[in-house]
Design a protein that fits this description.
This protein is of the alpha/beta class. It has 19 helices and 19 strands.
Length: about 575
């Protein structure tokens, strides 16, 4: 049994997440965590809301709430949405909690002690009317690269260029709208990433098994040379710049930059998890000298987060010179687009997690998103394609199989697994075929190749339908009821097999299929042998007729949804 630590990129606190956020990190992480647990591994799957930084203050101001109340409310909303989508986090924490504050201040102190943090004087935009320095996202204006008129001080959402607020043309305060701005000098702390260039490059060079996307992004930053990065901001909301409880002189009105403290929350979240129950030891997951040496650490995130996790966070960990666990595998994904354009939380573009669940159950969305996960390139989400995939894969293939075999059995043999008849050549061929397919499916999941895994799983469902077409129990029943009984028994066992194999992707439906036979999937080993799977159900065992697993999506629904969500 392996010990596997799984973390998803932290969803930002400013509003419920859209489907692009979901498939970019949290959902693939959940699929892998579920699979790893089913294989008998000890898995700790963690996530948290990322609550510090300018957007949290701005969102709270727009909601007419204190930032503390806003973050507390939004955390619960996001936590509920994640639960409803079947995300099986062992703990869903908050970066504003005490463990992250303590750890962030600890890392800052040891990094400064090791010569990797220094105080520098910056030129920063000051709003005379607001009587304060304006951090990056408190400044908006025209992008100097593409002339987009609503670029933020840290990044242009139109062209993706990373910016400094003083680079914006015609800047204004996003707090008051004032253009009465000037550039003044102020002090900030810088993480001296440039001093860690060789150490980070050597570490990345050991990661041959990383996905191509991850390696290419990390390699680009190494090739360009690591730049020192400011890790403090002029904000109220965040981790105070203090060491061992004592404010750093001259920094009493500043906090640590959200991108410095947010990755540290992975560790802080583990401490939160440990404090929730006796006997848990968070340090055994993170400290190499206390048991974490045998942990495999897997991170999931969208491509825009990769640089911070392959450079900045490792600089923090390695630069501390303390025995902390570093990531082993970083699975990165490209972007899911909305009809070819960007999903956007700030511009409310696309379908969001709560809206999706108002339309259809979670498994409809989970399957489509993972079957079309943006792994090799960006992927476009359209409602038409969504409906097509759901109808073909879930309704016509999986749902139809379960419906056909259970109802045929009930009508001819009653609601019990038939005991008559023996398996023959057709079943032997099915077993041989399934053994190959199960092995390929398992290998794809182990490699975190999710689109390939979905294709393999669909092939397993198809094999079940093809078996029924060839064995034709409805025809055999007329002349050889015992033979028909054997085919039905095999078909019912296939439902149990499909449930176990499908659980990582469509857990709610898998639980329904398993419940037909009173099976608890949490106690089921990962299927490796098709022969054993076809003998899983005791002959004569009772089962309950299931409801239709998936209803088809009609054209009228798609048209209504297009209008509702402004699909173009």
């Amino acid at each position: 049994m392996a010990r596997i630590l799984v973390t998803s990129a932290l969803p930002y606190i400013n509003g419920i997440k859209h489907l692009g956020n979901l498939v970019g990190s949290m959902l693939p992480a959940d699929v892998y965590a579920r699979f790893s647990r089913a294989c008998g591994n000890e898995v700790l799957f963690l996530c948290a809301t990322d609550e510090h930084g300018t957007p949290a203050e701005l969102a709270a101001r727009a909601a007419n709430q204190s930032v503390e109340d806003y973050c507390a409310e939004q955390h619960e909303i996001q936590k509920r949405a994640c639960f409803d989508f079947g995300l099986s986090f062992d703990h869903f924490g908050r970066s504003s909690n005490a463990p992250n504050k303590r750890l962030t201040q600890h890392f800052a102190k040891v990094l400064e002690d090791n010569g990797l943090i220094e105080e520098r004087t910056d030129r920063q935009i000051y709003s005379i009317d607001d009587a304060r320095f304006l951090p990056d996202r408190y400044v908006e204006g025209t992008c100097p690269n593409c002339a987009y008129e609503k670029a933020r001080g840290d990044q242009c959402d139109n062209c993706g260029t990373l910016l400094d607020p003083i680079e914006l043309k015609d800047p204004y305060s996003s707090i008051s709208g004032s253009r009465n701005l000037e550039v003044r000098e102020t002090k900030h702390l810088y993480l001296r990433q440039s001093k860690m260039q060789d150490a980070i490059a050597d570490w990345i060079a050991t990661k041959d098994a990383w996905p191509h996307l991850t390696k290419s992004i990390a390699g680009k930053w190494i090739k360009e040379g690591l730049q020192d990065r400011s890790i403090t901001r002029d904000l109220y909301w965040g981790v105070p710049v203090a060491y061992e409880g004592k404010p750093r002189p001259g920094f009493d009105k500043k906090v640590f930059y959200v991108w410095f403290d947010a990755p540290i929350e992975y560790i802080g979240c583990t401490e939160e998890w440990a404090s929730a129950a006796p006997g848990r030891n968070w340090r055994s997951w993170w400290r190499l000298d206390e048991g974490a040496a045998d942990v495999r650490y897997v991170q999931f995130m969208g491509k825009d987060n990769v640089a911070f996790h392959t450079v900045s966070f490792p600089v923090t960990i390695l630069g501390s010179k303390e025995p902390w666990k570093l990531v082993d595998t970083l699975k990165s994904l490209n972007w899911l687009t909305w009809y070819g354009g960007k999903f956007s939380t700030s511009q409310n573009r696309g379908i969001f997690m709560d809206q999706a669940l108002e339309l259809l159950p979670a498994d409809y969305w989970r399957w489509h998103l993972m079957a079309n996960a943006p792994e090799s390139d960006d992927a476009s989400f359209t409602l038409e394609h969504f409906a097509s995939v759901v109808n073909k894969d879930l309704a016509d293939v999986l749902g139809n199989f379960v419906n056909r075999i259970t109802r045929f059995c009930a009508s001819k043999f009653g609601e019990n697994v038939p005991a008559e008849g023996a398996y023959g050549e057709v079943e032997a061929k099915l077993i041989a075929d399934l053994d190959v397919k199960i092995a390929a499916y398992t290998a794809a999941l182990e490699a975190m190749e999710f689109r390939k895994a979905c294709a393999e799983l669909r092939g397993i469902w198809v094999a079940g339908n093809e078996y029924l077409q060839i064995a034709a129990p409805w025809t055999a029943f007329k002349t050889d009821p015992a033979r028909a009984a054997a085919v039905v028994r095999a078909g019912l066992n296939l439902i149990a097999l499909f449930a176990a194999l499908s659980a990582p992707f469509i857990p709610h439906t898998a639980a329904k299929m398993a419940a037909v036979f009173g099976i608890d999937l949490a106690r089921e080993p990962w299927p490796l042998s098709a022969k054993a799977a076809l003998e899983r159900l005791p002959p004569g065992a009772a089962f309950a007729l299931p409801e239709v697993l998936f209803k088809k999506i009609e054209d009228e629904q798609v048209a209504a949804w297009r209008e509702k969500f402004g699909a173009e």
